[in-house]
Each structure stands twice: as structure tokens, then as C-alpha cells.
Amino acid sequence: MAKKQIAVIGAGISGLGAIKCCLDEDLEPTCFERSDDIGGLWKFQKNPLEKMPSIYKSVTINTSKEMMCFSDFPIPEDFPNYMHNCKLMEYLRKYATHFSLLRYIRFKTTVRSVRKRPDFGVSGQWDVVVETDGKQESLVFDGILVCSGHHTDPHLPLKSFPGIKKFEGCYFHSREYKSPEDYTGKRIIVVGIGNSGVDIAVELGRVAKQVFLSTRRGSWILHRVWSNGYPMDSSFFTRFHSFLQKILTTAAVNKYLEKMLNSRFNHAHYGLQPQHR
Predict the structure, then answer these.
(1) What gap in Å lies between CA 7 and CA 100, rounded to an integer?
(2) With CB atoms counted within 10 Å of each terminal CB, which end of the chain scores lower, N or C?
(3) Whole-prediction pTM value?
(4) What integer pLDDT is reported at residue 52 of this predicted model?
């Protein structure tokens, strides 16, 4: 019996894992990647393509290597607990090479459309149109795995900032930020206290004249390093802590966590004390 043909869209972390899982299940995957390399979000590019994810040069993962690695391919011991994006790319290349995944990837190929076939109710098959070097090709697959990620469309709510069109300085989404050199000696406001906002504000603080970090409400700041120097996630997300959360009240758990986070620095002293627990 012929193997079922599976289309995998995207060759980032999810796409690579999808290819490997297809092979484990005796399926025949074909991965379509519109760039010229694997890695997706984690492939640093100074000038990213439109509708492509984009990171800044200094990005370091916020999940420890023990918690984020593929279960069947541990990250090398000499890699840092929290890897710079170039080390993560090195790991992904090792993974793809070890399991011979690259042979199943068609690079510089864009998926133009995915539609159910006229006889889908019987066959369960899909018509897929792809484009390579300006030439389109129609293919038939038994299944589709969409691994294109979601960090592609920047959210820039300019309507929320009256007068922005008259602003004489420059403004842009963090997707366009790459490195701090161009901002030496400038006054900057970073809007948003998510991971990217905090990262960029800290980095710019080393070169800019002044940096403001704007947030509509406070936030609990968790450090990558937890008690005794161990990674936060591998220390906290354990069966023992899961057991404690089941037997303790939510208020007790919140009180313990807030005390621990405030022991690093008092959030109230920096105007970061949230109203939410």
C-alpha cells in the first residue's frame, strides 16, 4: 500500500518536528519553506521578507534547553541553559541532519492555496498549489500540517496614539528593531511590557540618552534563573509543585509566588506592582 502523502507548510521548529513525526508514522512528508533555510522565527535576518517572522539580533530563548528540546534529541550539554538564537539554530541544524530531514524540504517554495478536492468526502485529499521561481505547480496530498507560525503580522494600533502623524521622530513595531547601535544618545519610549518590550528597553538603556518603558498596567517579572541558580521552568514546573497547587488554595499559591518575586526586587518601588495576583 502506498504511503500517504503529507504536506508540511513551514520548516521552523514545528515544521521540522512535523516532518520527523510523519516519518515515525510511516507517512511521506513534503515540506514547503518559502525562505532558503530552516529555522523560521529563529533564523535572524537583518531584512526579513514580508509576512515572515522577525527577531532582533540579541534574542535569547526564555525557555531552558531541558524544557524546550525535542524529546528524542537532547540539546548538547555544553550549550547554555538559555541559548542565543544562533545556538538554537545550530541545534536545529544538528536535529535536521541527524534525522535526515532536509531531503524532505523544498526551499524557496511558497504555498499559494490549499483546497479540498471535489471528492474530498470520499478521498479526504487536498489540492495544493505551490510556486517556485515564479512557476506554479498543482499537487495532491492526503493531509496538511500547517506549521507557519503566528509571529508574522505586527500589531501597530496607530489610532490609539492621537497626533502620531505629526510626530517628528520615527516610530515602528519591534519587528523592525534589530540592534541598538542606531539609537545611541536618543530619547526613546518603548510601548508594552511583554518579553520583547523589556528586552529592547534594557538593551537600548545601555546606549540611549533616556528610555521610558510604557505599560497600561503593572507586571510580574519572572527571572530566567530560579532558586539555587537552576532554570526557572525546570525548577518550577515539576510534579511536586503541581501537587502543591492541587492541595493549596489559589490565594496561598499567589502569596508564595509574589513573595518570591518581590524578594528579587520590590515591584512597587519601580511602579510595576500589578493589581492582578
Answers:
(1) 17
(2) N
(3) 0.90
(4) 81
